[in-house]
């Protein structure tokens, strides 16, 4: 159970990294790890790790470290929640298709990409990695039918803006936005923006200034 205090966004951003680390450690048969080992694996300083974990109470013991199995369970609940979350994907072009072919369940076993949408008649009715592609005209009815809470947008920027207001009204609470545009949603919707051009520029910048 989270403490009733505000957790910094930077800490929230690192939770999936911690979860992935503990999950992989468990799969490798590791029983416990130290903050130093986490630090070396994730390139996050130990003080930051201890500060991040302090927001959630006593997760480890001095001289013992962190119990891997217990932390997998804890971060699974914090990152993924307790139930299966249905996700929709809108736009099955090159990027959308690549995401559908990615094995999300390897890391996020409570995330289910239930259905994809497109406007291309040649694609509608097909399946990609077991996910059916449905005509965009059925967007509202399907979101409500499967109680989808999360949408992945891999459409042209302006299309994403036009769709974002609608999908909020249909019940979407979180959006993974691959368009470069600011979406037309209220503060009630959590949006995580992934602009590949910006990420590439950031990579080049860090490469240039690393040494």
Automatic annotation (TrEMBL):
Biological process (GO) annotations held by this record are:
negative regulation of DNA-templated transcription; response to redox state
Q: Keywords in alphabetical order, please.
A: Cytoplasm, DNA-binding, NAD, Repressor, Transcription, Transcription regulation
**Does the keyword section mention Cytoplasm?**
yes
| UniProt keyword Transmembrane helix present | no
Kindly list the GO CC terms recorded for this protein.
Answer: cytoplasm
Q: Start and end of every CoA-binding domain?
A: 81-182
Which residues hold NAD(+)?
Answer: 91-96
* Superkingdom of source: Bacteria
Q: Name where it's found.
A: Cytoplasm
**Entries under InterPro entries matching the protein:** CoA-bd, NAD(P)-bd_dom_sf, Rex_bacilli-type, Rex_DNA-bd_C_dom, Tscrpt_rep_Rex, WH-like_DNA-bd_sf, WH_DNA-bd_sf
Q: Name one Pfam family in it.
A: CoA_binding
MF terms from GO for this chain are:
DNA binding; DNA-binding transcription factor activity
Which residues form the DNA-binding region? 17-56
SUPFAM superfamilies under this entry?
NAD(P)-binding Rossmann-fold domains, Winged helix' DNA-binding domain
- Family designation: Belongs to the transcriptional regulatory Rex family.
Q: How does it assemble?
A: Homodimer.
HAMAP family the record matches: Rex (MF_01131)
NCBIfam families assigned = PRK05472.1-3, PRK05472.1-5, PRK05472.2-3, PRK05472.2-4, PRK05472.2-5
Summary of the function given for this chain in its UniProt record = Modulates transcription in response to changes in cellular NADH/NAD(+) redox state.
Q: What is this protein called?
A: Redox-sensing transcriptional repressor Rex
| Organism annotation | Nosocomiicoccus ampullae
């Amino acid at each position: 159970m989270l403490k009733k205090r505000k957790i910094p966004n930077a800490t929230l951003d690192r939770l999936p990294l911690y979860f992935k680390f503990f999950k992989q450690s468990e799969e490798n048969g590791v029983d416990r790890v130290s903050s130093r080992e986490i630090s070396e694996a994730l390139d996050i300083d130990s003080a930051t790790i201890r500060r991040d974990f302090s927001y959630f109470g006593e997760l480890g013991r001095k001289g013992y470290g962190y119990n891997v199995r217990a932390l997998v369970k804890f971060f699974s609940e914090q990152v993924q929640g307790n139930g299966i979350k249905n996700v929709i994907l809108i736009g099955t072009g090159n990027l959308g298709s690549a995401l559908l072919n990615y094995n999300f369940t390897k890391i996020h076993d409570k995330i289910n990409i239930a259905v994809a949408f497109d406007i291309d008649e040649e694609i509608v009715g097909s399946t990609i990695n077991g996910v059916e592609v449905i005509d965009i005209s059925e967007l509202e009815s399907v979101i409500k039918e499967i109680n989808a809470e999360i949408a992945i947008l891999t459409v042209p920027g302006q299309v994403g803006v036009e769709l974002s207001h609608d999908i909020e009204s249909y019940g979407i609470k979180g959006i993974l936005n691959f368009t470069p545009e600011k979406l037309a949603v209220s503060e009630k919707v959590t949006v995580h923006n992934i602009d590949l051009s910006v990420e590439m520029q950031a990579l080049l910048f860090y490469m240039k200034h690393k040494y």
